[in-house]
């Protein structure tokens, strides 16, 4: 694994192995890069997980903008979770700009600290996580871009890391699924304002950010009976727009039903739908209300609050997540970076859930808890 040098403010001393046995875990002076972890009272295990730059030592506005201020690495080898950018918006049918999402989400993610305040999860202590950079893409050739994204994601998957990607428009999820679900169809949990199961646009063009999950079903990448879409709303092209998806067996939870039932009941049903089998999670930032996440290609009023979105993601605990993404953050339409911050925060929420899952796998514990 090739690290791209230490970040400013990180001395060799800090990245080196732990020297004293009694160094209290969680203390400010904890050495970076090597630490001891107690696991259920069992023998302490020595790890060399990547650590973010310590926000108490180097201010969060300083240094290279990587996801979560983690080291930038060249390959996903040895990682539990690979943070990946997919700067491509060639599937956008209206307002483009999500190609700029990864860079701005990296910047906003510098606001994340080491520990989840509610679950107390310390993702970087329990799992090995790093920023593997942006996948190669082609901004002027859609079919080539889809191939490049799939190939790039295959290298992450084949390295054995769980991918957590930042788009990019929602069509980026299709080549990601081609890599993640290459050997068997997976379940899908989709937070979104739109179903994205239309057939063709502008004549017979099958590949846009309004079609990825129709293609994914046709290609046997996702199991429609284990697919659930939450937060769907906004004007549609025709009264029967969602009929195809419903006929396949997709469960669509419109925003009106979510308001009626609430976070816990909806997520309990989500767990029933996807069960214990491998499942991909995709979070379109337009699921959140445009008053809180205006920087997106196809905003729809009446969305989730950021707080509801956080609670929804936290209740993914127990799902056998094989990968996840946050898509459609479009910085050119953003205000004061609020959408990038929403994207980075949802990414951190997903990361905490995925790190706990990765830690369970590492310790030989069951991946699913429900
Ligand atoms: Mn979408």
Automatic annotation (TrEMBL):
Molecular function terms, GO-annotated: agmatinase activity; metal ion binding
GO process annotations (BP): putrescine biosynthetic process from arginine, via agmatine
Xref: CDD domains: Agmatinase_PAH
Origin: domain of life: Bacteria
Keyword Plastid: no
Record-linked Pfam families: Arginase
Record keywords: Hydrolase, Metal-binding
Family statement drawn from the similarity comment of this UniProt entry: Belongs to the arginase family. Agmatinase subfamily.
UniProt xrefs under NCBIfam families: agmatinase
Protein name (Swiss-Prot/TrEMBL): Agmatinase
Species: Shinella granuli
């Amino acid at each position: 694994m090739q690290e791209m040098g230490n970040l400013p403010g990180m001395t060799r001393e800090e990245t080196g192995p732990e020297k004293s046995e009694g160094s209290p875990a969680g203390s400010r002076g904890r050495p970076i890069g090597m630490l001891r972890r107690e696991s259920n009272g069992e023998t302490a295990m020595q790890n060399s997980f990547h650590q973010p730059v310590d926000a108490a030592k180097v201010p969060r506005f300083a240094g290279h903008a990587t996801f979560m201020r983690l080291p930038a690495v060249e390959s996903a080898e040895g990682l539990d979770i690979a943070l990946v950018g997919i700067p491509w918006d060639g599937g956008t049918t209206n307002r483009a700009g999500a190609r700029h999402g990864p860079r701005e989400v990296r910047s906003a993610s510098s606001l994340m600290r080491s520990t989840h305040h509610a679950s107390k999860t310390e993702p970087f202590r329990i799992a090995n996580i790093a920023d593997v950079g942006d996948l190669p893409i082609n901004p002027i050739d859609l079919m080539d871009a889809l191939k490049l994204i799939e190939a790039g994601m295959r290298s992450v998957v084949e390295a054995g890391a769980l991918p957590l990607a930042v788009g990019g428009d929602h069509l980026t999820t299709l080549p990601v699924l081609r890599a993640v679900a290459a050997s068997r169809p997976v379940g899908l949990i989709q937070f979104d304002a739109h179903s994205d199961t239309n057939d063709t646009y502008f004549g017979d063009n099958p590949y846009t950010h309004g079609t990825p999950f129709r293609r994914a079903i046709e290609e046997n990448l996702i199991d429609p009976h284990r697919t659930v879409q939450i937060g769907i709303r906004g004007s549609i092209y025709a009264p029967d727009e969602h009929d195809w998806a419903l006929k396949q067996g997709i469960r669509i939870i419109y925003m009106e039903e979510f308001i009626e039932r609430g976070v816990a009941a909806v997520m309990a049903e989500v767990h029933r739908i996807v069960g214990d089998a491998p499942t991909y999670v995709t979070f379109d930032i337009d699921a959140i209300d445009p008053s809180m996440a205006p920087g997106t290609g196809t905003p729809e009023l009446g969305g989730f609050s950021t707080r509801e979105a956080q609670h929804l993601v936290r209740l993914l605990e127990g799902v056998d997540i094989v990968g996840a993404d946050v898509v459609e953050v479009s910085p050119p339409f953003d205000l004061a970076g609020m959408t990038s911050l929403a994207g980075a925060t949802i990414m951190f929420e997903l990361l905490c859930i995925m790190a706990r899952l990765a830690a369970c796998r590492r310790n030989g514990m069951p991946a699913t808890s429900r």
